[in-house]
């Protein structure tokens, strides 16, 4: 069986924490789809296509033997509908802290009601990335702080360009 995993998120911007989860999720599936979501409630700094391009660029650097192929796609609408359209068997979610667990627990229960055939797999964030959140990275960048430990050089450049404008 060809195992397809889906890692959804807004990735505004993609952080080293996201890339850590992607790198580890690639070991669990044959194909990993990164669903870059539209979530206007989060008021993204980067337009959807820029986020897709950033994630695609960062994932292109992660090639290696024995690892899943990665596809980066814009994601619209309900997660479970998108997962079904992608023929995903697994939804990958990253956990950082207790508050993540509470939210994810509720979402997983709802998703299971929508499609019990798609499993949700949780990966704990690496200790180095447990405090990293896109929202905080944007705030630090907007206030002139150093975001080097939290994002790749290309993402850092894109963030600094946004805040210079």
From TrEMBL:
GO terms for biological process: coenzyme A biosynthetic process. Keywords: ATP-binding, Coenzyme A biosynthesis, Cytoplasm, Magnesium, Nucleotide-binding, Nucleotidyltransferase, Transferase. One of its GO terms (molecular function) is pantetheine-phosphate adenylyltransferase activity. Pfam families: CTP_transf_like (PF01467). Residues 6-139 form the Cytidyltransferase-like domain. Signal peptide: none annotated. It catalyses: (R)-4'-phosphopantetheine + ATP + H(+) = 3'-dephospho-CoA + diphosphate. InterPro entries: Cyt_trans-like, PPAT, Rossmann-like_a/b/a_fold. Transmembrane segments: none annotated. Its EC number is 2.7.7.3. The keyword ATP-binding applies. This is Phosphopantetheine adenylyltransferase. It comes from hydrothermal vent metagenome.
């Amino acid at each position: 069986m060809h195992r397809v995993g889906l890692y959804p998120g807004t990735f505004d911007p993609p952080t080293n924490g996201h890339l850590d989860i992607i790198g580890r999720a690639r070991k669990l599936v044959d194909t990993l789809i990164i669903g870059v979501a539209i979530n206007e409630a989060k008021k993204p700094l980067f337009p959807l296509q820029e986020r897709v391009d950033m994630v695609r660029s960062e994932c292109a650097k992660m090639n290696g033997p024995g690892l899943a192929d990665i596809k980066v796609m814009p994601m619209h609408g309900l997660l479970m509908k998108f997962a079904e359209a992608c023929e995903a068997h697994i939804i990958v979610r990253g956990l950082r802290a207790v508050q993540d667990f509470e939210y994810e627990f509720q979402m997983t229960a709802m998703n299971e009601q929508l499609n019990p055939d798609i499993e949700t797999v949780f990966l704990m964030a690496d200790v180095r990335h447990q405090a990293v959140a896109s929202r905080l990275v944007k705030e630090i960048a907007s206030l002139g702080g150093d975001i080097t430990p939290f994002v790749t050089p290309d993402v850092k450049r894109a963030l600094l360009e946004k805040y210079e404008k």
